[in-house]
Amino acid sequence: MSKQEEMYNLVTEYRNSGLSAKAFSKEKGISSSTFCYWVRKNKEEDQPGGFVEVTTGSNSSARELELIYPNGVRLQMSSPDLALIAGLVKLY
């Protein structure tokens, strides 16, 4: 098992434990700062980031767009313009 796999298993165990990160890391004999690094790294990998491919549906004449932010907020637009979409993407 790699170091990353080992630490991610501990992060999963920590999330299910109900303990604070400080208490959990102390219990496992890991420095608090090292353990918090792995918690952050695991969280970053769980969250989608970057751009996604946009494809048109079977009805390409429809001019509707739905923008979904990683936090779950959904924006639905009809006849979207690219400047507006770019501004909305930059908000996140």
Automatic annotation (TrEMBL):
Domain of life according to the entry: Bacteria
| NCBIfam families in UniProt | IS66_ISAeme5_TnpA
Query: What protein does this entry describe?
Result: Transposase
